[in-house]
Amino acid sequence: MCVVLANPDRPAWQVPTTATDTEVRSAFDGLVAYCGTYETDERRETVIHHVEADREPHMMGTDRARLARVSGDRLVLRPTSLPPGVAEWTVEWERVRATRGWIRTASGLEYRVVTEGRGRVVARGDTVTIHEALSLPDGRTVFDSRVAPNKPVTFTLGANQVIRGVDEGVTGMRVGERRRLRVPAALDGRAFDPAFIPPTATRLYDIEVLAARP
């Protein structure tokens, strides 16, 4: 993971591929960057940063302790140094749990990537077109947009036009990516005839992002 923080008033960060050391140092002025992997120590409220990229060559491959606050599944990282004129910056991560290829988020949603995508990353506010199939744990298929006369579904991400579980599951996907979702009933919110969809049944979605635009 690589996190780069910059003052919003700062010019865009542009470094030529053949940049000299001086040009690289200049480009990093006013930036705080954290590239690599992280290991938390919740008792001491620290996180060990395994450095994989740095403007200082001698820092590559080193381990550095970072100030952090851990609260449940949320980790708040506090930079140890800040650009002039900046009072405070924080970076927040939300921890997820992976089991047998499935990733479980804090909301209870579980997802698994079936096919990687190569297109743009889908973000809130985008108009997204997806194929989706909804089935139940008992094997019944409720809906499948791939089966005629059904068609792909288009909606605005984050605008409450689909259930919460689909909104969350699609966020961050790439165009061309396919995921399977396990959506708890609490992330659906709709009421159905219990004979059609039992109120506590997990919703099983198969979603493929076909297109997305801002």
What key attributes describe this structure?
mainly beta, eight-stranded antiparallel β-sheet, 214 residues, 2 helices, elongated, 2 domains, Chitinase A, domain 3
Q: What does this molecule look like?
A:
This protein has 214 residues and is mainly β. It folds into two domains: 2-94, no CATH class; 97-213, Chitinase A, domain 3, CATH 3.10.50.40. The chain has two helices and 14 strands. It has helices at residues 21-28, 164-170; strands at residues 2-6, 31-41, 46-53, 63-71, 74-78, 91-94, 97-99, 102-104, 110-115, 127-135, 141-144, 153-156, 178-183, 203-213. The strands form two sheets. Strands 7, 8, 9, 10, 11, 12, 13 and 14 form an eight-stranded antiparallel sheet that branches.
Question: What is the element layout, followed by pairings?
Answer:
Blueprint: E1 2-6, H1 21-28, E2 31-41, E3 46-53, E4 63-71, E5 74-78, E6 91-94, E7 97-99, E8 102-104, E9 110-115, E10 127-135, E11 141-144, E12 153-156, H2 164-170, E13 178-183, E14 203-213
Antiparallel strand pairs: 1-2, 2-3, 3-4, 4-5, 5-6, 7-8, 8-9, 9-13, 10-11, 10-12, 10-14, 13-14
